[in-house]
Amino acid sequence: MYCKITNSQLSPFMSFGKMPIANGFLEKENFNKEFFFNLEVGFSEKCSLFQLNEHPTPNQMFNQNYPFFTGSSEFMKTHFKKYSEFIKKEYLKNNSNIIEIGSNDGTFLSNFKDSNLNYVGFEPSKNVADLANKKGIKTINNFFNLENLESIKNFIGNTSVVFAANVICHIPELNNLIKTLDKLLTKDGVFIFEEPYLGSMFEKTSYDQIYDEHIFMFSASSVSKISSITNLTWGTVGFGANDTGAWMANVFPGKEGLNSQQMQEGSCEALLLLGVEPEADTADPMKTFKALSDSTTVAITSYMTPYLEKTADVILPMGTFAETSGTFVNLQGDIQSFHGAVSPLGDARPGWKILRVLGNLTDLDGFDYLDSAEVCQDALKDNDKQVPNNTLGETEKIDISWEHTGIARIGGVPMYASDAIVRRSPALQRTPDTWSDNARINDQMAEGLSVQDGDSVRITQGEGVANVKIKIDNGVPDDCVWLPAAISTSRNLGCSFGEVRVEKG
Known about the structure:
This protein is an alpha/beta fold. Helices cover about 25% and strands about 20% of the residues. The protein has four domains: about 50 residues, no CATH class; about 160 residues, 3-Layer(aba) Sandwich (Rossmann fold), CATH 3.40.50; about 140 residues, Rossmann fold, CATH 3.40.50; about 100 residues, Beta Barrel (Barwin-like endoglucanases).
């Protein structure tokens, strides 16, 4: 078992045994001719890439009977339309060239059909390529690789943009692909691709993503290391609104500063919370509760919570972002300022004004601002000289091994529990994207606990206890309970990933 990028030894990770080609829909008389291979996943230490040890050949997977047509999905049609507009605006000019790898039935490229742009799709599956050509979408029924480089150049020349959506994970010869891109792209050309993300696969337990066509399972670390090995440059996308702005304004711990975990574990005499609801916005509510209880705590908040009432020594009312002026910086580094839509309620004040007063009262420099525009100007005064650097730097290797004999709590933060405003929106809390306050276990664990769907259980994590109702969900792994953070039933517990005890209530 060897890595397809570095040729180094792979570490075995997961095996599903002998499997047929997923999209090989055979007629009865051909059942005895079905192709089987060992569906095994290995891990490369050198490039941090999960990959199939064995897989069918590209010709076996992509042939004249490929069953998936992108145009059958309304979601994909809408998504590709928006994506094409973005690419036109940011990267293409009249007479620019664009290539799509794995163009399928031409759904994405159809958005360029009536433009002044040169385009072509490469699609190895003949039936979907034929359909694209019938629709007038220029499509070549072949693989995009070095072997076909000259014919590519003869057809379209050097190219400004190469685009691929859920395709790169299907290509076994990544080194070949990268060399092809290197020889084909213009000096300022870009390669834009979308791929299933390994982190989401684990978070959602979507192991159906592991099958014959998905030869690679990408993470941020693996793409970064592959880029380094192949002399490419790449960047990462921030996790939330204003991430880029925060970094450009140097809003992160300095050499002697502490991160949030270090504050929790240390012995800070005083803590200042700005727009933080500790029970929902911190990784370990119980640890945070202890840290706040052991220190003098000043909370600047838009909402009063029982948790803050117990832990905060001083509470100062702050307006929400919609009640003040301010600035966001997008991932590209563009400054986007806004005005408050309404005035703050009661005695609430904008956050920057409260910080100004506190800074003045404590004789600190740098707090003499008259309005939020001055704050922005000072924080981003060198913005014209800055280009956001979103490359993934060297990261400290940490030990994530965990030996346990009990039950593991797994979870995350649901979409509509991510901030104080959406958590309080009745309409959003009634949508299908909202996780209920139930804990989820599979039927095997339910049988062991003698509980049924809707029964109550008692979950203990450290000193924290939660009484929750159970929902049977066989997507949850064995010996695990799914209980997200930032919901009402988990706020008295510890870290959203850790060992717990589960008992029938």
